Amino acid sequence: MSVEKVQSVNVVRLLLVEDHEVVRAGLRLILERKGDIEVVGEAGTLAGAVAEAGRLKPEVIVMDIRLPDGSGVEMCHRVQAVSPDSRLIFLTSFPDEQAVVAAVVGGACGYLLKEVRPEALVRAIHEVAQGRSVLDPAVTQPLLNKFRGLTPPGHKQDLDVLTHQQEKVLALVADGKINKEIAEELGLSEKTVKNYVRNIFQRLQITRRSQAAVYYVKSRRGSN
Fold it and tell me: Is the pTM of this model over 0.90?
């Protein structure tokens, strides 16, 4: 019976990429504590990460955004070639606006600071494994500020395709809130919010919550 119970657990296969061995060891201990995440491989360089991603085909890759032989942003493109189904979460020491902006375009699914609480990191990994995106507000705020300065005056991306309620939902997505938090703030069911988010993505022709944040900031800049 115990074997059947273990087999029924939805275990996320994860590749851990971090150039500091002590940090990797600590992260492995945290992530494998509950038994629903299996660290199937580790790497300390970009080259090693690409090799391990191709060999192991992990569901999720948690990696530092800066590595000795390249940036985590470059990983977005290289990992898709060897393991297209793997989903990336960047775990950073500090908000790096340019790197985050580039990673949005590259297709990463999460951005978290290393000060994140262990339970929040575990929750984020499961969110990403299930196809959702996770944004740390401490990372997204510098990103929003960056785009406020980058978008030329008078430029406005068109939000007219969205209803007023959809725009409110988009604003909260851009603020880094998950569907449950959005539902609580707007007095909606989580299922309704999920449908709103799906329709917003379809109308704006985007696929990531991080892309939604960029789109929203650009559009609001032009309307101010």
Answer: no
